[in-house]
Write a structure and sequence with these properties.
Layout lengths: L10 H12 L1 H11 L2 H4 L1 H7 L11 H12 L7 E10 L3 E8 L4 E7 L3 H22 L8 H15 L2 H15 L21
Antiparallel strand pairs: 1-2, 2-3
Helix pairs in contact: 1-2, 1-4, 2-4, 2-7, 6-7
Amino acid sequence: LIARRDRADNPGERLARALESLGPSYVKFGQVLATRGDVVGERFARGLSRLQDRMPPFDHAKAVKTVETELGRPLDQLFTEFGPAIAAASIAQVHKAVTTEGDTVAVKVLRPGIETRLAHDIAAMRLGAKLVESLFPDSRRLEPVKFVETVARATEMEMDLRLEGASASELAEAAAPADDFFIPEVHWDRSAKRVL
């Protein structure tokens, strides 16, 4: 029996699967690469696009613990319902919940240990990019070190959900006059660095 590689399999999809197996930092790296069809080629970028917001969720009990720790109260004082994850990405996942006041909300929770994991992975990527530039001078035109710094800045901003909440609030304020555009309200009393 001889195995044959599926020729229809996009190399970007193969890289996407490999990046998923390496973890959230590498998924973020792939997400940034997916936006650079001009550098990696459009077909390759399309293959990487599968990395957009499709990761397995982490344990529900860990999400509950994060919410309680970050907000300083037991879950039942915050929500009457807190369902399983309805979406999971490389950095966080989202749960449908109902507040004690009866509002249906989406609760975003950072993955446990994501900050430490990202810091280690970004350090490895920085080292790798510097080595590539040193060993392969022609690669400098692609600016691997600068690319890794772009990934690092993007991930650092995502590590504080209060920044995302502030951006959403500003956008909601700017879009308020539009009848056909809705931005959900941020519940600041149920938001913290790791919970939105």
